[in-house]
């Protein structure tokens, strides 16, 4: 009798230990993209739970698409990368759902990429990082940017988006400690070989990844960076430079005016020569 009781207890214990594992696998297999959209591109057909390869049509065949919005079924991080053909022409955007026990990869191949003649277009139109926020917004004038990330984020995939599908700029994968906030350089190479360097300073905000995810899930979400410090903004630097230059000019003018109007003779000084 004791043997039967022992076997039953052993079976129940094993079953208790296995159920969470099965539950975890069940959750993981349900991870999928429920929707995704891109700037400068349209899906040729709707997403399906069991389809992972798609084609998209570029609105402008010479311009790279970029991530616009997405929704995920399950708990996963979305990583965006680009693939290129043997001629270094951008051919697809890849969305990877990375979760605790695996990953799901969706490939969106361009149906109408434009293979141009040599071009000097070495600009970026965006710099994407999961749970990261770039400031200022990527533009054609600035090459120095700050990438804000949560305080506890340690794995980063930084994906640059080139303006021209024929240009190349490789993504950067980083594994950091929670104390590290390095500076990196992205090099965008145009099809004619000309290069443009983008300097990215990584800065950690006083929020955890969980807090950032919660903020991003809000319908009115705009930014998880609580108003970039004013003294870091280009406008403030411009105003400060003008103010300092103006102060220097005023001091110089005052000094010159003083020298011109200064009387070289001391009225109280007795004449050296007798009259």
Give a structural overview.
The chain has 3 helices and 14 strands. It is α+β, with helices and mostly antiparallel strands and 275 residues long. The model is unreliable at 19-28 and 228-234 (pLDDT under 50).
What value does the average pLDDT take? Answer: 82
Helix share, percent: 10-25%
Strand order in space, largest sheet: 2-3-7-6-5
Order of helices and strands: HEEEEEEEEEEEEEEHH
Strand content: 25-35%
Tell me, briefly, the overall form: globular
Largest sheet: 5 strands, mixed
Radius of gyration in whole Å, from Cα?
Answer: 30 Å
Total beta-strand segments: 14
The end-to-end span amounts to 140 Å
Low-confidence stretches: 19-28, 228-234
| Secondary-structure content class | alpha+beta
Count of helical regions = 3
Outline:
This protein has 275 residues and is an alpha+beta fold. Helix content is 23%, strand content 35%.
Would you spell out the secondary-structure blueprint of this structure?
Elements: H1 2-29, E1 32-39, E2 41-43, E3 53-58, E4 66-73, E5 77-84, E6 90-99, E7 102-110, E8 124-129, E9 133-135, E10 144-149, E11 155-162, E12 172-175, E13 183-189, E14 195-204, H2 209-216, H3 234-261
